[in-house]
UniProtKB/TrEMBL annotation:
It comes from Hyphococcus aureus. PANTHER family: HTH-TYPE TRANSCRIPTIONAL REPRESSOR NSRR, WINGED HELIX-TURN-HELIX TRANSCRIPTIONAL REGULATOR, RRF2 FAMILY. PROSITE patterns: HTH_RRF2_2. Coiled coil: none annotated. InterPro entries: Tscrpt_reg_Rrf2, WH-like_DNA-bd_sf, WH_DNA-bd_sf. Gene3D superfamilies: Winged helix-like DNA-binding domain superfamily/Winged helix DNA-binding domain. This is RrF2 family transcriptional regulator. Keywords: DNA-binding. It comes from the Bacteria. Pfam families: Rrf2.
Length: 147
């Protein structure tokens, strides 16, 4: 399974916000730290906010922060919500499936089990789990201070 860039960036934004959960961070700082498009991050942040992972504060001195503790954000949940299409092959799409062997082929079952295992594994990790090395992350992301 391969994550889309959108989901990859979403996880990076959440990791960034989890490194200093007490502080507001900005799209500008996140963009600079990762060297990725500010415009793309704006779309990602909007979706993360819509799904309740981030809280945004508008206006001067505004920014974003986690909407809940990192220990409550499941990596599997983030992937499920940010990925628009987890269908791994045409046969997963009932309304757009023109594969002539679908009714006799066992590949859909195998791929489905693989996807379930993938998501089950991601469900075992929270944002807190993947940000345990906060000091190292803060250095790599060029934070000034981390508790």
């Amino acid at each position: 399974m391969r994550l889309t860039t959108h989901t990859d960036y979403a996880l990076r934004v959440l990791i960034y916000a989890a490194v200093e959960p007490e502080s507001l961070c900005t799209i500008e700082r996140i963009s600079g730290a990762y060297g990725i498009s500010r415009n793309h991050l704006m779309k990602v942040v909007q979706r993360l906010s819509d799904y309740g992972f981030l809280e945004t504060v508008r206006g001067r001195g505004g920014g974003l922060k986690l909407a809940m503790p990192a220990s409550k954000i499941c990596v599997g949940d983030v992937v499920r919500k940010m990925e628009d299409d987890l269908a791994q092959a045409e046969c997963f799409r009932q309304d757009q499936n023109s594969c002539v062997i679908t009714s006799a082929c066992g590949l859909k079952h195998a791929l489905s089990k693989a996807l379930d295992a993938y998501l089950d594994t991601l469900d075992q990790f929270t944002l807190a789990d993947v940000t345990r090395k906060r000091k190292a992350l803060s250095t790599l992301l060029d934070f000034k201070t981390v508790a």
